[in-house]
Write a structure and sequence with these properties.
Layout: H1 7-29, H2 38-69, H3 71-103, H4 111-136
Length: 141
């Protein structure tokens, strides 16, 4: 299991993932023939099918490593992760509702409203980050 923690494995995984994301972004944003060609499309699919098992393997090995540290540590990690997903999903849903209310029947949101929405969610993020920092370092003087 130690071979998957080595720097070269994670570096290769990161480079392949960055290449796949770059190719995917190029294909989504460009209508050029070379970007939509069969060669680049096949390369994108091959990279996806290489990266998916590598990511799954790294995820499983990370969970095994956490379990070996202790059962309590494993479940605490999953509790924090699921809570983060729940809060992120709730804030994302709230953002969708706020944008829908501000937009109404209009086709676009004006810049003032867009800035207010951004400011509100930025303040929420800063308060959450500050509260997390203070919670983690409350005993340090």
């Amino acid at each position: 299991m130690g071979e998957f923690k080595k720097k070269w494995f994670q570096t290769v995984w990161l480079i392949l993932m960055a290449a796949q994301l770059l190719i995917d972004r190029i294909q989504r944003s460009s209508d050029a023939l070379w970007a939509q060609g069969p060669g680049l499309t096949m390369l994108n699919k091959v990279l996806m099918w290489i990266i998916f098992p590598m990511t799954l393997l790294l995820f499983i090995l990370h969970n095994i490593e956490s379990w070996r540290k202790g059962e309590r540590h494993f479940w605490r990690m999953w509790q924090k992760g699921s809570l983060a997903l729940l809060v992120g999903g709730a804030l994302g849903s709230l953002l969708v509702v706020v944008v829908k209310k501000c937009k109404g029947e209009a086709l676009e949101i004006d810049n003032g409203t867009r800035l207010i929405i951004l400011a509100v969610f930025s303040v929420i993020g800063l308060v959450c980050a500050f509260a997390r920092y203070k919670f983690k370092t409350w005993r340090e003087k």
